[in-house]
Amino acid sequence: DPGTRWRRAAVFVLPHPSPIIMANRSVLQVFEAYQKARVNFVQTVAELANRPENIEALQHAGAMSLLRPLLLDNVPGIQQSAAMALGRLASYSEDLAEAVVSGEILPQLVYSLSEQNRFYKKAAAFVLRAVAKHSPQLAQAVVDCGALDSLVECLEQFDPGVKESAAWALGYVARHNAELAQNVVDSGAVPLLVICVQEPELSLKCIATSTLSDICKHGPELAQAVVDNGAIAYIAPLIQSPDAKLKRQVCSCLSQIARHNFDLAELVVEGEIFPKIFNLLKDVDQVVRKNAATCIREVCKHTPELSQLVVNAGGLGVLVDYVSEIKGTNRLPGIMTLGYIAAFSESLAQSVIVNGGVIPLSQALDTEREDHLRAAAAWSLGQIGRHSSEHSKAVTDASVLPMLLQAYLDPQSGEDLKRKSKRALKSIVQKCLHPPALLPLLSVAPLNILEHVVGQFAKILPGDRAARRDFVSEGGLETIERISEHAPEGSDLRKHIDTINACYPEEIVKYYSPGFSKSFHQMIDQFEPPIGSE
Q: What does each of the 534 residues of the chain score in pLDDT, given as a tens digit?
């Protein structure tokens, strides 16, 4: 049949594969299995290292030594995953970070920063950051392996993720001490970080600003190096950013610049942060509010002129609201700012009083449980009340003196709280001319405070008839006479008591003396009434 013959002719048999082809396929399968196993291994370890409960087991299993050769693998994905796993291990503890250093992993990471693709650069920078964050010694190890130059080169890369990773690693190096921060500056990182602040990516702006803040905090020279590269002009406007994380870092960086001296603080002010930064004191983000208050504090503390600038810009009312509304540690910069402003002059202290600053400070002294917060409140109240009798009265009207005395006498109070409470108490008492505020202290104050309290009565009573009368009727003179029994001859306390006694007739003084009641009864017993005639 012609059709059948045609179909038979169309059928052909494929040749059998040669032994060489079969052998090559077997070899390739082995290598493919090895590559898949490596990929699976590094990806699994990287995932396991992301959970803290697995770290110890990975360490005991020798994950570090197994990951190290994979950093030089010929498959980029394996390199990246190995670096990521090492970074997570190093980030977990200082011991594991030291193992990365002792395993001589850092040099090959630094080499790869300039040779590999952007994904590996980010992973390598992550490892360097994870090592540097633990201690100055480990950060120095990162510097010693030549990482700074490679990280600075990464700041010039096109990819924003690479820039961000490099900036982050540089920040972890710089944050430890001035020497490491100077190394970062000397590497040429600052101008590139300032450029990063100008990039459109929010996360890059945030990390670059944070790194500049870590550089600035160590000293005026380092802060000046940042300022000289025009950082303030680009950072200061960002306080109006809608992003909370960026606002946190901006306020932190500006405060680290301003804190060192008047000239740097003035440059921050020239960045036109006032009154814009006052809006951040009411931000929904608590850290933004705290950092903004810290920045204002670092500006105010240098001179009366800078404090007056804050007052003139309308900052006092917002600061008082901040101290009233915030509780806990975040309250501290607001408390300190009010104290710095009040410390400079009577007029500035009066501005704090007029804006209602005494009440929230007294509440902080009374209700906060942390000693450092109560100590700050005590110091600020002392700065307000030390200027004049009017300032002192504004403070004593808020019942501050008993609070300060209680803080000073409380055995649970720390030394700093006791010291600041004692100083504030003395400075307020020495200006106080309001007897009702001083009178309760007569019966409870220790001798070193009592001397100042009695001294104030010695100033008030000679020229005030009504005060002399009230002093007797409210038990003050009787208390003074009891105190006189323990006042050493020739002491200031004895002199003050003698001045007070001289304000009253001798009979009145004797009447309120502790021994008078006994002698009074003796006089009654010894008196013989005349016998009348019948």
A: 554 444 444 444 445 555 555 557 777 777 778 778 778 887 888 788 878 877 778 877 777 778 777 777 777 788 788 888 888 888 888 888 888 888 888 887 887 777 767 888 888 888 899 999 999 999 999 999 888 999 999 998 888 999 999 999 999 999 999 999 999 999 999 999 999 999 999 999 999 999 999 999 999 999 999 999 999 999 999 999 999 999 999 999 999 999 999 999 999 999 999 999 999 999 999 999 999 999 999 999 999 999 999 999 999 999 999 999 999 999 999 999 999 999 999 999 999 999 999 999 999 999 999 999 999 999 999 999 999 999 999 999 999 999 999 999 999 999 999 999 999 999 999 999 999 999 989 888 888 888 899 999 999 999 888 988 988 888 888 888 888 877 788 888 889 988 988 888 888 888 877 766 555 445 555 555 666 544
Greatest alpha-carbon span in the chain? 183
Return all residues near 531 (Cβ < 8 A) that are at least 6 apart.
Answer: none
Cα gap 259→268, rounded to integer Å: 10
Contact 416, 376 (CB under 8 A): no
CB atoms within 10 A of CB 38: 18
Q: Please tell me the pTM assigned to this model.
A: 0.84
Map residue 414 onto helix, strand or coil. Answer: coil
CA-to-CA separations, 10 to 6, 7, 383, in angstroms, rounded: 6, 5, 108
129 near 165, Cβ under 8 Å? yes
Q: What is the DSSP letter of 1?
A: -
Distance CA 118, CA 161 (A): 8
Q: How many Cβ atoms are within 10 Å of 473's Cβ, its own excluded?
A: 9
For 146: left if phi > 0, alpha if psi spans -120 to 50, otherwise beta; the answer is: left
Question: DSSP letter at 503?
Answer: T
CA pair distance 90, 97, nearest whole angstrom: 4
